[in-house]
Fold:
Amino acid sequence: MNTDTEKQSFLYPVYWGVWLGIGLLRLLAFLPWTWQMRVGAFFGKLMHRLLKSRRHVVNVNLKLAFPELSNTERDALCADHFISLGQGVMDMTLSWWGSDEKLESLSTIEGLEYLQKGLANDKALILFGMHFTSLEVGGPIVSNLTDGVHVVYRPHKNPLLEHLVAKVRARRYGKAIPKTKIRELIISLKKGHTVWTAPDQSFQYKNSLQIPFFGVKAPTNPSTSRLASISNAQVIPFITIRLYDEKHRATGYLLRFLPPLSDFPSNNIEQDTLRTNQLIEQQVREFPAQYLWTHKRYKNPNDSGLDYYASNKSA
Structure:
């Protein structure tokens, strides 16, 4: 299908729901930020009530990751996560259509010196990202700081969504690289570009490693170690999270750069991958409600046939 024909097909009725959803989000982007957060919290509470299968996934993940919590505590954390997830949708509208000035006014940067030193280094730079619900907010700011960060992303299955998101990312970032195009990613690193990647979701391909995540083995992507080895890149962990006051009202965002990983990569890829998993755990423990628990992080952990999510096959 050529480009013109594909664009014409986006007018077919099958895509009308997507257009309606995008239009609604575009309108919400005009609301004051505090109102957006209230709308996001309402949307999150609605998702928590209606999305039974996703709620099941979150509860399974939380039970595996935080066995020390009581059922009441995990239920409360699950509810808070869906609120954060709904507010994350509002964060996305801000990232896509908000001004740089508005993004920067709402954001505090911690550890900027680590990024600045990394950029001054002759090495390529990998920003090791993590899937917190506000991850879209940090992208445009980091792109401005790095003169156009190259971001690795998972393509949408819906062609219209993929088309629209690709346009936004082309405008907001230096380059958007589908995660399947590893060669493009390596070329970007070897040319000295700063690359953002978040390989912390379930990875079930042939290079997957069974690495503990919160003490439970999970299929894990070892790409950070491999990419650093191939490109001689420095690795700087980076997260974006939402800040709240004592009354649990959103107040802004924190962009956190952590010290670059020393002696990385090593000669042991499993130890490297365990190290990055433990690094993610440290940040998740600090902001547990904001990590993306709706993802089946522990899916198919080995060849034994064990399925932690089996009680709800539709999830």
